Every structure is written in structure tokens, then in C-alpha cells.
Amino acid sequence: MKRFFAGVFVVAMGFGLVVAQEARSQEPEASRKTGDKLAWQVAAEKQALPLIEKKTLNALVIGVIDRQGKKHFFTLGEKPTTLGKLDENTIFEIGSITKTMTSFLLADAIQRLEAKLDDPVQSLLPEGMTMPKRGDKVITLEDLATHTSGFPRLQVGLASKLMLDAKLQGNPYAAFDVEDLKKSLEQTKPKVSDKPKVEYSNYGAGLLGFALCQKYKKSYAELLHERLFTPLSMKDSFVVVPSAEKARFIDGFAPDGKASQHWDFHDASAGAGAVRSTASDMLLYIEAAMGRTKKLQPAFELMEAPQYEMGPKTQIGLAWIIIEMNKKRAWWHNGGTGGFASFTGFSKNPGVGVVVLSNRFNAAGEVDKIGLKVLEALMSE
Predict the structure, then answer these.
(1) Residue 346 bridge partners (DSSP)
(2) What DSSP letter does each residue of 53-102 carry, written as one string?
(3) Which residues have C-beta within 8 Å of that of residue 131, sequence separation ≥ 6?
(4) How far are the Cα atoms of 98, 108, 281 from residue 233, in angstroms, in the given order?
(5) pLDDT (tens digit, 9 = 90+) per residue, 209-231?
């Protein structure tokens, strides 16, 4: 569901003509630039159009927040015939960007004085479920949120389960439930190191979401709607897309161009990648993350604070990757499921952000490259 890119992050696991549609703004027409294309739009086209022409990407929706706080949306590529309209209200799977939302739930719980970063994960798990130790050290909520738990990338036993049941391979987390998580924990032996080491783990992020569900006796979907989606008016963000909205849920495609199943999750792994959202809602999310609105600001500030070094000019907060770009700090994360790829990033100074949503999973990290180029253009304007 996620991969390392440029030494940091990259993702694991009839159509119309190819056309670049005009960028749209939520501001009145008089406030838009006219004439030449915006720099971020040029950057997006330069990266994306060759890939669309080579048919390695299908449809893209890009949303940006510029220095003036204006929101713009831009679509590229081919619209599936099963979709009525490709725009900022089209629903995509956002994959591992979900992890930032799981970490938000942790940060929010801390701000409410209902949890601490150093709380042992074991203290939140149900009776009969045992959390392994990392050597002689207990694993904490912070360890899961920063990928320093020593947990493997995938849940123990998941790969063998997929090998035994071919039907699950197109929807790998659909059958991974609480009982599977319990068995996985019993077999997990976290890596031991002298000091915390960041090693990306879908397993750990999913477990963090599950632990928070246990704490509040609520489903992952209920927690997100109560703590994040409703306060930010993210009305088109879901764990399970309602029947009434499925007409806007775009079909996804694997790297080879074949149709891919939508991925489904139990609460045992939902925190790693279950969210479906739109470009419009995702701009509401990063608008709050970068501090342009005051809603939930203390929790966002906590999750965006650097926790560990990952490499030259690269750190990790609670899920967010923090880099230096144009001599300024920027935050980003990407995501991928069987038929989708996504990227979101922002910089608080100069106050710009981007989301890129694709209905084609691309193992080469092309969506990440598009997002980073657009973010760089926004920061340079």
C-alpha cells in the first residue's frame, strides 16, 4: 500500500480522448489569473501528459491552494465511461494518506488529555490480545505513528493467506479481521536496534487505528467522522462509500491497465489505508493541516512536529514526512491501493498545498513526482 520514494517514500501493492481540461477556481472569475497558464498547472502537465499519452496513467484530479488561499482544481486524462463527471467531487481511494488521519486521531486524543505518546499499545488492546515487545522494551503509540516499532511492513500471515486464496489477491485486506490480527501479533517479532529506526509499516499503522477504536469503543469510520470529517465539513470522505454516492466513485486500474477491485478493510487494518475522498475534501484537510483555518490546530501542530530523522533534510512527524524544499519546510505523504495512487503535500510558509488523485496505480511513483513538482512550483511563485 505504500512504498519508499527518493530514499523516503514510494507505494507497495471505453474511454474518451486524452485532454487537459481548464483549471477551475472556487474564487470568482475576476480573481483568477488570465492569459498564460499558472506555473503549477504547467508543472503538472509537463509531468503528467507524457504518461497519459503513453497510457501509464488514466485520470487525474489535481487540487491546489495558492499563496492567496484560493483553491483551484485541474483534471487530466481519460474519464471511465462508468463515471458521469470527472472533477473535484469524484471519489478516489487515497490509500496510505489515511495514515496521516490515523495519526491525527492520536494527536487529537492527546490534546484531549485522553492519551499520551508514550502509552503502551498493550494498554489499549482487548483482553486476550498480546502486544509483542521490541527486545525488552514495550512498544508505544508513538512507535506505531512514527514507524519506529520494528514491525514488518505487512501483517504476519497476510501474504500466505493471499497465496492460499486467489480471490483475496485483488482485495487483500477484505478478509483480515480481528482474529487474524490477534494471530499476527502472536507471531510478530519486532526488529531490535540500538536507537529508533524508521521502517515503514502498514501493519503498525493499521494496529494504531485498531487500538484507538478499542479505546473509544467505536469503529474507525465513526472516529474519523466524529473527530475529523465533521469538524472540517469533509462531507465526501468515507471508509465505506454510501450507495447513494457510488456513482461518483471512480473505477481503479492496475499498473498493467486492467480493471482493479476497490479495496475494503476491517477495523483491524483500516488505519493503514481505508479512506476514500475527493480533491475538494482533501483541500479542506490540508488547509487545516497548514494552519489556514484554526479548526483542530493544536492536534495538527502536534502531528506535524518532527520526531525522528530519516535522512538528509528529511524527518518524520506523526506519519507526515517532512522535507526541505526551496529552503523551506514542507510536509507530504503518498498512497496507493490496487487501482489508485495519491499524493498530498503542503508548506506553511508560503501557505500552499496540493493533492493529486489518480485512478491508476503506478509503481514508479509517477503521481508522487507530479505532486512534488506542483508543490515546488507553488512554493516558487
Answers:
(1) 331, 353
(2) HTTS--EEEEEEE-TTS-EEEEEEEPPBTT-S--STT-BEE-GGGHHHHH
(3) 120, 121, 122, 125, 138, 139, 185
(4) 17, 17, 8
(5) 999 999 999 999 999 999 999 99
Predicted TM-score (pTM) of the model is 0.91
Residues near 98 by beta carbon (within 8 Å), at least 6 away in sequence: 205, 270, 271, 272, 273, 274, 275, 335
Which residues lie below 8 Å from residue 108, measured CB to CB, with a gap of 6+? 227, 228, 296, 299
Q: How confident is the model at residue 30 (pLDDT cuts 50, 70, 90)?
A: very low
All residues at 6 or more sequence positions from 316 whose CB lies less than 8 Å from its CB, including other chains: 146, 147, 198, 306, 307, 308, 310, 322
User: What nine digits make up the cell of 50?
Assistant: 507524457
Torsion angle, alpha carbons of 370, 232, 265, 356, to 10:
-10
pLDDT (tens digit, 9 = 90+) per residue, 93-116? 999 999 999 999 999 999 999 999
Strands 328-337 and 59-65: unpaired
Fold annotation for 19-28+35-316+339-347+361-380: Beta-lactamase (3.40.710)
Domain boundaries along the sequence of the chain: 19-28+35-316+339-347+361-380
Whole-angstrom Cα distance, residue 330 to residue 231?
24
Nearest to 212 by CA among 300, 271, 299: 271
Record the cell numbers describing residue 148, joined without a space: 519506529
3-state secondary structure 32-51: CCCCCCCHHHHHHHHHHHHH
Q: What is the tens place of the pLDDT at every residue in 323-333?
A: 999 899 999 99
Across-strand partners of 314? Answer: 311, 323
First CA to last CA distance, the chain: 33
Three-class SS state of 336: strand
CA dist 108 and 226 (Å) reads 11
| pLDDT surpasses 50 at 8 | no
